[in-house]
Amino acid sequence: MRRRDFIKAASLLAGASAPAVWTGRAAAAAKPVSIKFDTYISESAGPSRLDEWYLKQLETRTNGAVKVRRYWAQSLNKVGEHLSAVRDGTSEMSLISPGYYQAQLPVTRGLEWYYRMHRSDALQWLCRDVYAEYQPLRDEWERRYNSKVLYWTNWYYAPLVTRQPIRSIDDLRGKRIRGYGAANEVIERLGGTAVPMAAPEVYTALERGVLDGVYGFDFITAVAYKLHEIAPYFTDIGDGPHGPAATIINARVWNAFPDPVKQASDQIVSEIYGGEYARIYEAAARQYVKTAKAEGTKFSSLPQAEKDRARALVQPAQTDGWVDRVAKPAGLDGPAMQALVDKAIAKYDTQGSLKRFDELAAEA
C-alpha cells in the first residue's frame, strides 16, 4: 500500500494526542502519527535493541505514516518516572522494568523470580501467556496505569559481575553487590550484601570501590556500560532467566490508532515472539562476547553442585514469599497466578533456545 493510500484509508492522527479531521484538503495536508518512545537505558543496552527493531519495523511497514521520536538514556524522564509518564500521556511508549516499580506493580512482581527456568525466550512466552490468562495482571497495567503491554521484552541472562573471581557461593559472603528488584533478595539469600542502585550509577560505584560486584545487569548491557573494565569476572551462577520487562504504550494512544497501524504492530509483535527476540539478543550477545574477551573479561560458571545449592537457598522461598507478603495483603490469589506460571514453565522451558553468555564464550 502506498503511503498516501495508507494515510487516507487509516484516517491517521495529526499527532498521537488528538484525532485529525479527514476531509478534502485537510486529509491531504495532515501530518503522520508522531509518538514518543522514552526509556531510561542507553540505545546499546539489551532491550533497546529489540525496541529499536520494533520501532523501525513500525515506521517501515506503515510506509512512514508512523514517526517515532526516541528518547534514550533518561533524556526525557528519569529512572522510576516512566510508568506514570505513560499513564499520564507525557510519554506515549516506554520500556518498563518492574524491579523499579515494586510497590506500583505487585501483581507483576509475581513474574520476577530466579532459579525457575533455563532459557530467556521461554520466559518471554511465559509472560505473554500469563498476561493473557490472569486478569489481575492485565488490570494492573491496563486499568491502574492506562497502558497496553505491546510485548514482553525481558532482559538477556545476567551474570554475576565481580571485581574478584567467584568460585563458590561462599565467596559471596560480605560482598557488596548491586541489586535490582528481586535480585536484592537473591543476593542476601546467597550471603552477599545487596546494595540497591539505579543502572546509570553503577559504573561510578564500581570505580570508587563502593561495590564489589553487580547483579541484575544483563550481559549485553553490562558490556555496553563497560562494567567489565573494572569488574572483569563474569560468572553464571545457575539462576536462569529473570528480570521480565515490558514495552508499553498509553492505552488512549493505542486505541486512537487506526486498524492498519494496530495490525502492523500486532504482526511485528507476533514475529518478536516467533523468534526475533532470540535472534536479536543472540546476535548482540555474540558480538559482546567477542568484545569482552578481547578486553580481558574472564568467563566462568559455578560447578553444578554450587548451582543446586544456590537454587535451594532461593526457591521456593522467593516465590512463596511473594504469595505471602505481596499477593495476600493485596487481596490477590497468588497461588492461582503461580499455577499459571508453573503450567507455562512446563510448556515452554524445554522449548527455549537462546544461549547464555558463558555458552557463547565457550564457543568463541
Automatic annotation (TrEMBL):
Organism encoding this protein: Achromobacter pulmonis
Keyword entries, A-Z: Signal
InterPro entries: DctP_fam (IPR018389), TAT_signal (IPR006311), TRAP_DctP_sf (IPR038404)
Domain of life of the organism encoding this protein: Bacteria
GO BP: transmembrane transport
Annotated protein name in UniProt: Solute-binding protein
Cell membrane as UniProt keyword: no
Record flagged with keyword Signal: yes
Pfam families cross-referenced by the UniProt entry: DctP
N-terminal signal peptide: 1-20
